[in-house]
Amino acid sequence: MSLVITGIGELFTNGPDDILSDAAVVVDGDRIVWTGPAAHAPAADERLDAAGRAVLPGFVDSHAHLIFGGDRAAEFAARMAGEPYTGGGIRTTVAATRAASDDELRTRAGRLVAEARGQGSTTIEIKSGYGLTVDDEARSLRLARELTEETTFLAHVIPAGYDPGDYVDLVTGPMLAAAAPYAKWVDVFCDRGAFDGDQARTILTAGAKAGLHPRIHANQLAAGPGVQLAVELSAASADHCTHLSDADVAALAGSDTVATLLPGAEFSTRSPYPDARRLLDAGVTVALATDCNPGSSYTSSMPFCIALAVREMRMTPAEAVRAATLGGAQALRRTDIGTITVGARADLVLLDAPSYLHLAYRPGVPLVHTVLHDGVLAGMTACTEPRPAQPADGRDSEGQKGMPKEGT
Ligand code: NIG
Ligand code: FE
Protein backbone atom coordinates (compact mmCIF):
# COMPACT_ATOMS: atom_id res chain seq x y z
CA MET A 1 0.00 0.00 0.00
CA SER A 2 1.51 3.34 -1.06
CA LEU A 3 0.68 6.79 0.29
CA VAL A 4 1.52 10.20 -1.13
CA ILE A 5 1.64 13.13 1.27
CA THR A 6 1.04 16.35 -0.64
CA GLY A 7 0.66 19.97 0.37
CA ILE A 8 3.76 19.91 2.59
CA GLY A 9 4.58 23.52 3.41
CA GLU A 10 8.11 22.69 4.49
CA LEU A 11 9.91 19.34 4.36
CA PHE A 12 12.87 18.99 6.74
CA THR A 13 14.79 16.11 5.18
CA ASN A 14 18.24 15.88 6.80
CA GLY A 15 19.20 14.75 3.31
CA PRO A 16 20.74 16.35 0.25
CA ASP A 17 17.55 18.35 -0.34
CA ASP A 18 17.90 19.91 3.14
CA ILE A 19 14.64 21.85 3.47
CA LEU A 20 12.12 21.79 0.61
CA SER A 21 9.01 23.90 0.29
CA ASP A 22 5.82 22.80 -1.54
CA ALA A 23 7.04 19.23 -1.28
CA ALA A 24 5.55 15.76 -1.41
CA VAL A 25 6.67 12.43 0.03
CA VAL A 26 5.66 8.97 -1.15
CA VAL A 27 5.70 6.04 1.25
CA ASP A 28 5.36 2.42 0.22
CA GLY A 29 4.80 0.05 3.12
CA ASP A 30 7.26 1.02 5.82
CA ARG A 31 9.71 2.89 3.55
CA ILE A 32 10.03 6.29 1.93
CA VAL A 33 10.23 5.77 -1.82
CA TRP A 34 10.10 9.32 -3.24
CA THR A 35 10.56 12.92 -2.13
CA GLY A 36 10.50 16.08 -4.22
CA PRO A 37 8.44 19.01 -5.44
CA ALA A 38 4.72 18.40 -5.03
CA ALA A 39 4.12 19.21 -8.69
CA HIS A 40 6.10 16.12 -9.73
CA ALA A 41 4.75 13.67 -7.17
CA PRO A 42 3.90 10.26 -8.59
CA ALA A 43 0.51 8.70 -7.97
CA ALA A 44 -0.06 6.39 -5.03
CA ASP A 45 -2.86 4.23 -3.63
CA GLU A 46 -3.78 6.83 -1.03
CA ARG A 47 -3.27 10.53 -0.56
CA LEU A 48 -2.85 12.64 2.56
CA ASP A 49 -3.06 16.42 2.24
CA ALA A 50 -0.70 18.04 4.74
CA ALA A 51 -2.51 21.35 4.14
CA GLY A 52 0.65 23.45 4.36
CA ARG A 53 2.03 21.75 7.49
CA ALA A 54 5.71 21.22 8.08
CA VAL A 55 6.89 17.61 7.89
CA LEU A 56 9.95 16.33 9.76
CA PRO A 57 11.60 12.96 10.37
CA GLY A 58 10.18 11.29 13.47
CA PHE A 59 12.18 12.21 16.55
CA VAL A 60 14.77 9.70 17.71
CA ASP A 61 14.88 9.73 21.50
CA SER A 62 18.16 7.93 22.05
CA HIS A 63 18.22 8.13 25.85
CA ALA A 64 15.35 7.30 28.21
CA HIS A 65 14.84 5.38 31.46
CA LEU A 66 11.23 4.22 31.25
CA ILE A 67 11.21 1.11 33.44
CA PHE A 68 10.59 2.32 36.95
CA GLY A 69 8.10 2.42 39.80
CA GLY A 70 6.98 5.40 41.86
CA ASP A 71 7.75 9.03 41.23
CA ARG A 72 9.92 11.68 42.83
CA ALA A 73 7.76 14.77 42.62
CA ALA A 74 8.62 15.66 46.23
CA GLU A 75 12.34 15.48 45.40
CA PHE A 76 11.71 17.81 42.46
CA ALA A 77 9.85 20.27 44.70
CA ALA A 78 12.72 20.19 47.21
CA ARG A 79 15.16 20.97 44.41
CA MET A 80 13.09 23.88 43.26
CA ALA A 81 13.30 25.11 46.86
CA GLY A 82 17.09 24.97 46.69
CA GLU A 83 18.20 21.36 47.30
CA PRO A 84 20.94 20.21 44.92
CA TYR A 85 20.59 17.15 42.66
CA THR A 86 23.07 14.43 43.62
CA GLY A 87 21.63 11.29 42.06
CA GLY A 88 20.94 10.01 45.59
CA GLY A 89 17.23 9.69 44.77
CA ILE A 90 18.03 6.85 42.34
CA ARG A 91 17.79 4.54 45.38
CA THR A 92 14.21 5.67 46.01
CA THR A 93 13.27 4.63 42.49
CA VAL A 94 15.17 1.35 42.85
CA ALA A 95 13.06 0.43 45.90
CA ALA A 96 9.81 1.36 44.11
CA THR A 97 10.85 -0.52 40.96
CA ARG A 98 11.70 -3.70 42.83
CA ALA A 99 8.34 -3.52 44.63
CA ALA A 100 6.34 -3.08 41.39
CA SER A 101 4.78 -5.97 39.49
CA ASP A 102 5.64 -6.67 35.86
CA ASP A 103 2.25 -5.32 34.85
CA GLU A 104 2.72 -2.11 36.78
CA LEU A 105 6.10 -1.51 35.16
CA ARG A 106 4.77 -2.49 31.73
CA THR A 107 1.77 -0.17 32.03
CA ARG A 108 3.87 2.80 33.14
CA ALA A 109 6.45 2.33 30.41
CA GLY A 110 3.79 1.75 27.76
CA ARG A 111 2.06 4.98 28.74
CA LEU A 112 5.31 6.90 28.50
CA VAL A 113 6.02 5.43 25.08
CA ALA A 114 2.52 6.44 23.93
CA GLU A 115 3.06 9.91 25.39
CA ALA A 116 6.38 10.21 23.55
CA ARG A 117 4.88 8.96 20.27
CA GLY A 118 2.14 11.55 20.53
CA GLN A 119 4.90 14.14 20.69
CA GLY A 120 6.60 12.80 17.60
CA SER A 121 9.12 10.25 18.86
CA THR A 122 9.13 7.29 16.51
CA THR A 123 12.22 5.60 17.97
CA ILE A 124 12.87 5.36 21.70
CA GLU A 125 15.81 3.83 23.50
CA ILE A 126 15.01 2.37 26.93
CA LYS A 127 17.50 1.60 29.69
CA SER A 128 17.42 -0.62 32.72
CA GLY A 129 19.20 0.62 35.83
CA TYR A 130 16.56 0.82 38.56
CA GLY A 131 16.79 -2.86 39.49
CA LEU A 132 20.44 -3.30 40.50
CA THR A 133 20.01 -7.03 41.17
CA VAL A 134 20.47 -9.78 38.57
CA ASP A 135 16.76 -10.56 38.44
CA ASP A 136 15.53 -6.97 38.56
CA GLU A 137 17.88 -5.79 35.80
CA ALA A 138 16.97 -8.77 33.59
CA ARG A 139 13.27 -8.13 34.24
CA SER A 140 13.61 -4.44 33.37
CA LEU A 141 15.26 -5.28 30.07
CA ARG A 142 12.75 -8.01 29.25
CA LEU A 143 9.96 -5.46 29.72
CA ALA A 144 11.84 -2.77 27.79
CA ARG A 145 12.29 -5.21 24.94
CA GLU A 146 8.51 -5.47 24.59
CA LEU A 147 8.52 -1.79 23.63
CA THR A 148 11.68 -1.21 21.60
CA GLU A 149 14.71 -2.92 20.14
CA GLU A 150 16.94 -0.13 21.40
CA THR A 151 17.42 -1.56 24.86
CA THR A 152 20.35 -0.75 27.12
CA PHE A 153 21.74 -2.55 30.15
CA LEU A 154 22.70 0.34 32.45
CA ALA A 155 25.02 -0.18 35.40
CA HIS A 156 23.60 2.76 37.31
CA VAL A 157 24.98 2.91 40.87
CA ILE A 158 26.50 0.64 43.51
CA PRO A 159 23.81 -0.43 45.98
CA ALA A 160 24.37 0.38 49.66
CA GLY A 161 26.24 -2.31 51.58
CA TYR A 162 28.22 -3.61 48.59
CA ASP A 163 31.96 -3.62 48.27
CA PRO A 164 32.48 -1.78 44.94
CA GLY A 165 34.77 -4.49 43.56
CA ASP A 166 32.28 -7.22 44.43
CA TYR A 167 29.47 -5.28 42.78
CA VAL A 168 31.48 -4.76 39.58
CA ASP A 169 32.10 -8.53 39.58
CA LEU A 170 28.37 -9.14 39.91
CA VAL A 171 27.60 -6.66 37.11
CA THR A 172 30.18 -8.11 34.72
CA GLY A 173 29.32 -11.71 35.61
CA PRO A 174 25.82 -12.97 36.35
CA MET A 175 24.03 -9.66 35.81
CA LEU A 176 25.47 -9.13 32.34
CA ALA A 177 24.74 -12.76 31.43
CA ALA A 178 21.09 -12.34 32.49
CA ALA A 179 20.71 -8.94 30.82
CA ALA A 180 22.48 -9.58 27.52
CA PRO A 181 19.72 -11.63 25.84
CA TYR A 182 17.42 -8.60 26.06
CA ALA A 183 19.93 -5.79 25.51
CA LYS A 184 21.59 -4.23 22.49
CA TRP A 185 23.71 -1.68 24.39
CA VAL A 186 25.71 -1.48 27.60
CA ASP A 187 25.88 1.78 29.55
CA VAL A 188 27.42 2.89 32.82
CA PHE A 189 26.91 5.99 34.97
CA CYS A 190 30.52 7.17 35.24
CA ASP A 191 30.31 10.18 37.52
CA ARG A 192 30.67 11.50 41.05
CA GLY A 193 28.82 9.14 43.41
CA ALA A 194 28.50 6.38 40.81
CA PHE A 195 31.18 4.34 38.98
CA ASP A 196 34.75 5.58 38.55
CA GLY A 197 36.67 5.40 35.27
CA ASP A 198 38.33 2.03 35.93
CA GLN A 199 35.08 0.41 37.05
CA ALA A 200 33.29 1.89 34.04
CA ARG A 201 35.97 0.56 31.67
CA THR A 202 35.68 -2.91 33.20
CA ILE A 203 31.89 -2.91 32.81
CA LEU A 204 31.81 -1.55 29.25
CA THR A 205 34.59 -3.90 28.13
CA ALA A 206 32.76 -6.90 29.60
CA GLY A 207 29.56 -5.72 27.92
CA ALA A 208 31.31 -5.43 24.56
CA LYS A 209 32.67 -8.98 24.97
CA ALA A 210 29.10 -10.13 25.53
CA GLY A 211 28.10 -8.54 22.20
CA LEU A 212 26.64 -5.28 23.54
CA HIS A 213 27.89 -1.99 22.15
CA PRO A 214 28.99 0.68 24.67
CA ARG A 215 27.42 4.04 25.43
CA ILE A 216 27.99 5.99 28.62
CA HIS A 217 26.53 8.49 31.09
CA ALA A 218 29.49 10.85 31.32
CA ASN A 219 30.42 14.19 32.90
CA GLN A 220 26.92 15.06 34.10
CA LEU A 221 27.60 16.02 37.71
CA ALA A 222 31.33 16.72 37.51
CA ALA A 223 34.33 16.64 35.21
CA GLY A 224 35.78 13.14 35.00
CA PRO A 225 37.09 10.36 32.79
CA GLY A 226 33.78 9.35 31.17
CA VAL A 227 34.05 11.18 27.87
CA GLN A 228 37.65 10.09 27.30
CA LEU A 229 36.63 6.53 28.08
CA ALA A 230 33.76 6.76 25.59
CA VAL A 231 36.18 7.79 22.85
CA GLU A 232 38.75 5.16 23.87
CA LEU A 233 36.10 2.43 23.57
CA SER A 234 34.44 3.88 20.43
CA ALA A 235 31.20 4.21 22.35
CA ALA A 236 28.24 5.18 20.18
CA SER A 237 27.54 8.13 22.44
CA ALA A 238 28.67 9.99 25.51
CA ASP A 239 25.55 11.27 27.20
CA HIS A 240 25.12 14.44 29.28
CA CYS A 241 28.54 16.05 28.52
CA THR A 242 27.82 18.92 30.88
CA HIS A 243 31.30 19.34 32.40
CA LEU A 244 33.86 19.09 29.60
CA SER A 245 37.54 20.00 29.39
CA ASP A 246 39.10 21.20 26.15
CA ALA A 247 40.69 17.75 25.85
CA ASP A 248 37.24 16.12 26.14
CA VAL A 249 35.86 18.30 23.34
CA ALA A 250 38.90 17.60 21.15
CA ALA A 251 38.60 13.85 21.80
CA LEU A 252 34.93 13.86 20.82
CA ALA A 253 35.65 15.93 17.72
CA GLY A 254 38.21 13.39 16.55
CA SER A 255 35.95 10.40 17.15
CA ASP A 256 32.77 8.76 15.95
CA THR A 257 31.24 9.10 19.41
CA VAL A 258 28.15 11.31 19.45
CA ALA A 259 27.69 13.82 22.28
CA THR A 260 24.12 13.35 23.46
CA LEU A 261 22.82 16.40 25.29
CA LEU A 262 19.89 16.05 27.69
CA PRO A 263 18.66 19.54 28.53
CA GLY A 264 15.60 18.20 30.36
CA ALA A 265 18.01 17.09 33.09
CA GLU A 266 19.54 20.54 33.52
CA PHE A 267 16.06 22.08 33.44
CA SER A 268 14.73 19.71 36.12
CA THR A 269 17.82 19.85 38.32
CA ARG A 270 18.30 23.59 37.82
CA SER A 271 21.88 23.04 36.67
CA PRO A 272 24.00 24.81 34.07
CA TYR A 273 23.28 23.55 30.56
CA PRO A 274 25.97 21.84 28.47
CA ASP A 275 27.83 24.12 26.09
CA ALA A 276 26.33 22.93 22.83
CA ARG A 277 27.96 25.70 20.77
CA ARG A 278 31.42 24.69 21.92
CA LEU A 279 30.74 21.11 20.79
CA LEU A 280 29.14 22.05 17.47
CA ASP A 281 31.81 24.61 16.65
CA ALA A 282 34.48 21.96 17.32
CA GLY A 283 32.77 19.63 14.83
CA VAL A 284 31.31 17.17 17.33
CA THR A 285 28.16 15.32 16.27
CA VAL A 286 25.44 16.28 18.74
CA ALA A 287 22.21 14.47 19.59
CA LEU A 288 19.34 15.65 21.76
CA ALA A 289 17.31 13.26 23.88
CA THR A 290 14.86 13.47 26.78
CA ASP A 291 16.62 11.36 29.47
CA CYS A 292 13.03 10.66 30.54
CA ASN A 293 13.26 9.32 34.12
CA PRO A 294 11.46 10.02 37.39
CA GLY A 295 14.40 11.77 39.03
CA SER A 296 16.36 14.17 36.89
CA SER A 297 14.14 14.70 33.83
CA TYR A 298 10.54 13.55 33.89
CA THR A 299 9.65 14.67 30.38
CA SER A 300 8.96 12.52 27.33
CA SER A 301 8.83 15.54 25.03
CA MET A 302 11.42 15.94 22.31
CA PRO A 303 9.82 19.26 21.23
CA PHE A 304 10.42 20.57 24.77
CA CYS A 305 14.08 19.50 24.55
CA ILE A 306 14.41 21.21 21.16
CA ALA A 307 13.00 24.42 22.61
CA LEU A 308 15.43 24.24 25.56
CA ALA A 309 18.36 23.56 23.24
CA VAL A 310 17.55 26.63 21.19
CA ARG A 311 16.72 29.01 24.03
CA GLU A 312 19.20 27.84 26.64
CA MET A 313 22.01 26.17 24.69
CA ARG A 314 22.23 28.47 21.70
CA MET A 315 21.64 25.80 19.11
CA THR A 316 19.93 27.12 16.01
CA PRO A 317 16.45 25.68 15.48
CA ALA A 318 17.79 23.70 12.51
CA GLU A 319 20.69 22.31 14.57
CA ALA A 320 18.31 21.32 17.34
CA VAL A 321 15.86 19.54 15.03
CA ARG A 322 18.75 17.79 13.30
CA ALA A 323 20.17 16.69 16.67
CA ALA A 324 16.74 15.37 17.71
CA THR A 325 16.38 13.31 14.53
CA LEU A 326 19.58 12.50 12.61
CA GLY A 327 21.74 13.05 15.71
CA GLY A 328 19.70 10.54 17.67
CA ALA A 329 19.93 8.07 14.80
CA GLN A 330 23.72 8.46 14.78
CA ALA A 331 23.81 8.00 18.56
CA LEU A 332 22.07 4.66 17.96
CA ARG A 333 24.28 3.91 14.93
CA ARG A 334 21.22 3.70 12.74
CA THR A 335 21.13 4.74 9.11
CA ASP A 336 17.50 3.79 8.43
CA ILE A 337 15.92 6.50 10.60
CA GLY A 338 16.35 10.23 11.23
CA THR A 339 16.04 11.38 7.62
CA ILE A 340 13.33 11.82 5.01
CA THR A 341 15.22 10.28 2.14
CA VAL A 342 14.50 7.45 -0.28
CA GLY A 343 14.99 4.10 1.45
CA ALA A 344 14.60 5.43 4.99
CA ARG A 345 11.90 4.15 7.28
CA ALA A 346 8.58 5.92 6.90
CA ASP A 347 8.75 7.61 10.30
CA LEU A 348 7.39 11.15 9.88
CA VAL A 349 5.89 13.93 11.94
CA LEU A 350 3.39 16.49 10.63
CA LEU A 351 3.37 19.69 12.67
CA ASP A 352 0.39 21.94 13.11
CA ALA A 353 2.67 24.75 11.96
CA PRO A 354 4.12 25.92 8.66
CA SER A 355 7.74 25.53 9.74
CA TYR A 356 10.02 23.48 12.01
CA LEU A 357 10.97 26.85 13.56
CA HIS A 358 7.71 26.74 15.50
CA LEU A 359 9.02 23.89 17.68
CA ALA A 360 11.19 26.44 19.51
CA TYR A 361 9.13 29.52 18.67
CA ARG A 362 5.97 28.08 20.29
CA PRO A 363 7.33 26.16 23.31
CA GLY A 364 4.93 24.04 25.29
CA VAL A 365 2.31 24.00 22.54
CA PRO A 366 1.25 20.54 21.30
CA LEU A 367 2.26 21.08 17.69
CA VAL A 368 2.54 17.44 16.64
CA HIS A 369 -0.52 16.85 14.48
CA THR A 370 0.09 13.44 12.96
CA VAL A 371 2.74 10.76 13.39
CA LEU A 372 3.54 8.20 10.73
CA HIS A 373 5.46 5.29 12.25
CA ASP A 374 6.62 2.51 9.97
CA GLY A 375 4.30 3.91 7.35
CA VAL A 376 1.28 3.60 9.65
CA LEU A 377 -0.66 6.74 10.54
CA ALA A 378 -1.17 7.34 14.23
CA GLY A 379 -3.34 9.98 15.79
CA MET A 380 -2.21 12.50 18.31
CA THR A 381 -1.93 10.13 21.25
CA ALA A 382 -1.93 6.79 19.53
CA CYS A 383 0.76 4.27 20.35
CA THR A 384 1.67 2.06 17.43
CA GLU A 385 2.72 -1.47 18.17
CA PRO A 386 6.42 -2.10 18.44
CA ARG A 387 8.00 -4.13 15.72
CA PRO A 388 8.68 -7.71 16.70
CA ALA A 389 11.97 -7.93 18.57
CA GLN A 390 14.98 -9.31 16.73
CA PRO A 391 16.05 -12.72 17.86
CA ALA A 392 18.23 -12.28 20.93
CA ASP A 393 21.07 -14.06 19.18
CA GLY A 394 20.91 -11.93 16.02
CA ARG A 395 24.45 -10.61 15.75
CA ASP A 396 26.32 -9.20 12.82
CA SER A 397 29.62 -10.44 11.43
CA GLU A 398 31.58 -8.45 14.02
CA GLY A 399 29.78 -10.14 16.84
CA GLN A 400 27.93 -6.95 17.76
CA LYS A 401 24.25 -7.20 18.26
CA GLY A 402 21.95 -4.86 16.46
CA MET A 403 22.66 -2.25 13.80
CA PRO A 404 19.60 -3.97 12.38
CA LYS A 405 18.48 -3.21 8.89
CA GLU A 406 15.04 -3.50 10.36
CA GLY A 407 14.31 -2.24 13.82
CA THR A 408 12.26 0.02 16.02
O1 NIG B 1 20.54 10.18 33.32
N1 NIG B 1 22.50 10.29 35.74
C1 NIG B 1 22.11 9.19 35.98
N2 NIG B 1 20.92 8.69 35.74
C2 NIG B 1 19.77 9.43 35.37
C3 NIG B 1 19.04 9.98 36.52
C4 NIG B 1 18.57 8.99 37.41
C5 NIG B 1 17.70 9.46 38.52
O2 NIG B 1 17.92 10.53 39.14
O3 NIG B 1 16.79 8.67 38.79
C6 NIG B 1 20.11 10.53 34.40
O4 NIG B 1 19.94 11.73 34.67
FE1 FE C 1 20.15 9.05 31.79
What does this protein look like?
This protein has helices at residues 73-80, 90-99, 102-118, 134-145, 164-179, 197-209, 226-232, 246-253, 263-269, 276-281, 302-313, 317-331, 358-361, and strands at residues 2-12, 19-28, 31-37, 46-49, 54-57, 59-61, 121-124, 126-127, 151-155, 185-190, 213-214, 216-218, 237-240, 258-261, 286-288, 348-351, 368-373, 376-378. It has 408 residues and is an alpha/beta fold. The protein folds into 2 domains: 2-58 and 338-378, Roll (Urease, subunit C, domain 1), CATH 2.30.40; 59-331, Alpha-Beta Barrel (TIM Barrel). Strands 1, 2, 3, 4, 5, 16, 17 and 18 form an 8-stranded mixed β-sheet that branches. Strands 8, 9, 10, 11, 12, 13, 14 and 15 form an 8-stranded parallel β-sheet that branches. Strands 6-7 form a two-stranded parallel ribbon. It is globular and about 65 Å long.
- Our count of helices gives 13
Helix/strand/pairing class, anyone? alpha/beta
CA radius of gyration is 20 Å
Ligand set: N-(iminomethyl)-L-glutamic acid, fe (iii) ion
The largest β sheet comes out as: 8 strands, mixed
Annotated CATH homologous superfamily of the largest domain:
Metal-dependent hydrolases
The CATH topology of the largest domain corresponds to TIM Barrel
Please give the share of residues in helix. Answer: 25-40%
On the 0-100 scale, what is the average pLDDT?
A: 93
- At CATH level 2, the architecture of the largest domain is Alpha-Beta Barrel
